[in-house]
Structures are given as structure tokens and as C-alpha cells.
Design brief:
Elements (H helix, E strand, L loop, with lengths): L1 H40 L4 H7 L1 H17 L19 H14 L5 E5 L6 E4 L7 E5 H6 L2 H16 L2 H8 L1 H11 L1 H5 L3 H41 L3 H16 L2 H6 L33 H15 L5 H11 L16
Parallel strand pairs: 1-3
Antiparallel strand pairs: 2-3
Length: about 350
């Protein structure tokens, strides 16, 4: 059973990476094609245009890469919180040290963020410089065995070098989105070229981001599996996921928006159910928001394509499947009621 589940994750990851490679090649070819088309329009022979277009294509993509690299990274705020003193959370420090030893990764710097929102994430690329960020909301919500399972999940990301893997895989999306969001800058040079590149970038951004989201969800499931192996059972992690999910749903939207920048990194997405109609004055009279019948399916499609985490239900089901052959299988009764 476990071998089958592991095999399915590997197959899904490999297929996604191959598909991403094809999409990236298509995106680069489309950018190149824009310049070829413009050169042909100005009566340059097709053979010469195909050669000359390589230079502006490479220049544009390199310029976008440099600009995006220099952009401020909002996720760094997660690693800028106050580092806890070991005397403040001795049990937490002992737990993190024990799990790090089991997974054979350096013990991370422990950071506690003062927020009721249940954050749990790791920040950093090199295992030796990782910060494990846990919020006071998470520490207050979880019991000890659940907390250990969550720590194991996060350190499994370190073990698997997921930060590095996802950064590399995200490069095509970064380039594509740069063509879209930097339209104002590129349009000052040439409006036609900027507009065509923005259209190509939008298509590339949508396609590559959808594929990368599949990769991200697969990495989350792999970290769940590793955490269950560390604990010897998936019950604590299943219970923790359910508890944290419930806590997120009970958290005010204003608080969730404050941590939106690190949502993709946390063990669960820090966002409310976007399929629900937004709270507006239209609801005061029992009226749906304008065009909600059109907006709702679009929102649901966006969530299905671009969500960075599997649904909590899917994660629980996989934990149940992993433990079906064990002496103490995880069932819905094993998951702490919240």
C-alpha cells in the first residue's frame, strides 16, 4: 500500500516536471516568435528574422529575470520575527532537536511569531540556515504529539530541499509574470511589443503556474508521508491538520490577509474559503454580490488550478490509506474532534 502511494507521488511529480519543461519551451518559443513576427512585418527575411530574434528574446528574458530577482521578497518577513530563547520554550526546542536528528537535518533556528493565525513553515534555502516559524496560534492549538508531527512535516521539506526545488521550478512563471506586471516599463520602449509580450506572458503564467501548483501539492503530500514515518503513525498529523484547518476557518479574514504572503509556505493555506460570497453591503438586503453567479465558478476554477496545498480532506484520506496495514490504523475516530 505504502509503496503504491509513494510510486503515485513520484509519477505525478515526474510527469508535472516534464509537462512544465514542455510549457516553458513553448513560452520561450512564443516570446521568440513575437520578435520574429515583428521583424518579418518590417520586411526582414524569415531566415534572418529567426536568427536576429534570438538576441532581443534573450535580452528581454534576462532583463525580466534581473528585475524580478531584485524585487523585495515579502516572505522574508516570516524569518524576521524574534528568535525564541531556549528557556522560553524548552519542550519545543527539545521536540525540534529530536525530529531534526531523526530526519538527519541541521536543527533549525526556532522562531515564534506573535499572531493567533496558525502558521507553521520553514524559511530559507540552505539546510544550515533554515528558520522554523511557528505562531503562538499554532502552539496554542496543538497538543504535543500533534506539534511534533507538524514539526516533522516542516523539516521533511528541508530534508527534501523543497524550497530549492520549487524555486527552480518557478522560474518560468517568474519570467512570464514579469512580462505581464512590467508592462508599464516595457511599453515605454515600444507599446506594440510590450502588449504582445504581455499576452504571451499571461498565457505562460497561467499554464506554468497551474503545473507548478501540482508540483507544490505533491511536495506537501510527500512531507505528510515523511512526517507519518517519523511518528510511526499518521494519526497525530491527521489530528493536527484538522485542528489547524478549523482554526483557520475561525480566524477573521483581516488577520488572514496580514499573513497572505506566507500562505503558500505554511502547512495549510492561510486563507478563508474564497467560494463564499464576500461580505458587502449587498448582503444586508439578502442580495447576492453583482455577477456572483459568474464570479463563483471562476473563483472555484482558480482555486482548483492554482491551490498550493491538497485539500485537508485529501490529505486525511491519504494518511488513512497509508495506515490501513498498520497495527493502529488512522480512522476518522482517531482524529481529535474540534
Amino acid at each position: 500500500m505504502r509503496a503504491t502511494l509513494e510510486h503515485s507521488l513520484v509519477v505525478r511529480m515526474v510527469f508535472s516536471v516534464v509537462l512544465l519543461g514542455v510549457a516553458t519551451l513553448g513560452f520561450i518559443t512564443a516570446v521568440w516568435g513575437v520578435f520574429v513576427g515583428l521583424l518579418v512585418f518590417f520586411r526582414v527575411s524569415l531566415s534572418n528574422a529567426m536568427t536576429i530574434a534570438t538576441v532581443p528574446m534573450a535580452s528581454v528574458l534576462l532583463a525580466i529575470a534581473v528585475l524580478e530577482w531584485r524585487s523585495p521578497r515579502t516572505i522574508e518577513r516570516a524569518g524576521a520575527e524574534t528568535t525564541v530563547d531556549s528557556s522560553e520554550y524548552p519542550e519545543l526546542e527539545a521536540t525540534v532537536t529530536r525530529v531534526a536528528a531523526i530526519l538527519d537535518v541541521p536543527t533549525p533556528t526556532i522562531v515564534v511569531s506573535e499572531t493567533p493565525v496558525p502558521e507553521a513553515l520553514v524559511v530559507g534555502f540552505r539546510p544550515s540556515s533554515i528558520r522554523l516559524v511557528l505562531s503562538t496560534g499554532t502552539l496554542a492549538t496543538l497538543e504535543q504529539d500533534e506539534l511534533e508531527a507538524v514539526v516533522a512535516h516542516e523539516l521533511a521539506h528541508v530534508k527534501n530541499r523543497d524550497a530549492m526545488v520549487m524555486t527552480v521550478l518557478s522560474l518560468p512563471t517568474v519570467l512570464a509574470s514579469g512580462l505581464v506586471y512590467r508592462w508599464n516599463e516595457t511599453s515605454r520602449l515600444d507599446l506594440t511589443i510590450a502588449t504582445l509580450l504581455a499576452i504571451v506572458g499571461l498565457a505562460g503564467m497561467i499554464i506554468t503556474q497551474a503545473i507548478i501548483s501540482v508540483c507544490a501539492r505533491t511536495r506537501e503530500l510527500a512531507a505528510d508521508r515523511a512526517a507519518a514515518n517519523v511518528r510511526g503513525t499518521g494519526a497525530p498529523l491527521a489530528s493536527a491538520l484538522q485542528a489547524l484547518d478549523q482554526e483557520i476557518q475561525n480566524t477573521p479574514s483581516t488577520d488572514l490577509r496580514e499573513v497572505q504572503s506566507v500562505s503558500a509556505l505554511s502547512i495549510l493555506p492561510l486563507e478563508s474559503d474564497e467560494s463564499e460570497p464576500p461580505l458587502t453591503h449587498w448582503e444586508d438586503g439578502g442580495i447576492e454580490p453583482p455577477l456572483w453567479s459568474i464570479r463563483e465558478p471562476l473563483i472555484q476554477l482558480r482555486m482548483r488550478l492554482f491551490r498550493t496545498h491538497p485539500t485537508t480532506t485529501e490529505r486525511l484520506e491519504r494518511l488513512v490509506a497509508m495506515e490501513q496495514e498498520s497495527a493502529q490504523p488512522v480512522t476518522q475516530k482517531d482524529v481529535r474532534s474540534r
